[in-house]
Amino acid sequence: MRSIIASLLLGAAMPIPAFADTQKFPAPLPEETLPSVQQLPDKWPKSWVLIHDLNFASILDGKLALVDTHSVDRPLKGLVRAAQFANELIAPDRGEIYTAETFYSRLTRGARTDAITIWDMKTLQPKGEIILPDGKRQLSVTYPNVFQFTNGGKWALVANFTPAQSVTVVDLEGRKVLSEIDLPGCTQIYPSGQRGFSSLCADGSVFSVTLDDRGQAASSGSVAGVQDIDRQPLFGTPAMVGRTAWFVSYHGMVQGIDLSGPVARPLPAAFSVGKADGGTPQWRPGGWQVIASDAKGLLYVLMSANGKEGSHKDGGTEVWVVDPVRKARLSRIALKGQGLAIAVTREDAPQLIVARADGVVDVHDAATGAFVRTLGATVAANPIVITVP
Fold this sequence. Notes:
By secondary structure, the protein is mainly beta. It has one helix at residues 2-13; strands at 48-53, 63-68, 76-81, 87-91, 96-104, 112-120, 126-132, 147-150, 155-161, 165-171, 176-182, 186-191, 196-201, 206-211, 217-223, 239-241, 244-248, 253-258, 265-266, 271-272, 282-285, 291-293, 299-307, 316-323, 328-344, 351-356, 361-365, 371-376, 383-387. It has two domains: 86-139 and 144-268, 7 Propeller (Methylamine Dehydrogenase, Chain H); 273-389, 7 Propeller (Methylamine Dehydrogenase, Chain H), CATH 2.130.10.10.
């Protein structure tokens, strides 16, 4: 005890070094004005994407992360709230983001309100909302094709599930609900024709609806046998090339559907993404956002070597690049981890963006497959859907 006291007294008597040596003790930072808010540019760079963070630990507090995929040290540009299994759309020509959301008056209980919230792309602040009637909006883990544009982006289509299925037609410019279209036995929304949509149905058919200028159903049509539900079921999220939706099946068959007309038209001659050794038991597509396209029309498919019955949502460790015109695989891209969602930017030198199961977001050169950078697990807790403006 005496030695401890002596040491303390000796330390107290030692001189304190001067702070003049700025190499060891840099000058204090200048004062920052609070709040410090910056506006985003009128036109987002093509390297920016929206990454949907479902936030499994607190689904009530989902969000959209605006991410600069070129930035190593500050990729997160801002956040948009996206509550309770929300879905999102971007309208760069109007400078608006739309989120279809659900709220309860007592947070987790009470009166339910479904709404489309309208956000400003420059400030990421809400600027209006459209109330959706009757509490019908489909609440499910986020799919891109339960909230879509039609009529040149003037209207939005919202999927409902009660469990009866229907689609609510919303006038985004007039900020009002136009109609509700019954959709028995069919699901997902794929804009088709000038003013309408198509859906995949439980019997393997595709069903199409044409809307009149008031948003009411004007005509409809159905095409049977588009998919074999038992042997070659299709993932519900396609990659778009122009007005053609390219779907991939659980077993790796690619099917194109032309959505340019009032009735969806399946393209002939579905083809395989290809085979490869090393599968345990086999290579299959897997993930949440499992297929993407680039500006040249090439397709990118997320693949897992552990493909088996029930593995279709497990994610993948490679991306296979496929040319739908030649019906051939061009290359394979090895990932740094288990990817759940993929997208390709529309830059002059496009990037493949990969959201991994561990929350990490990686960037690859889409042309060569080379790994470019990782953004780490810094922008979203549970990245599940990537939207390229």
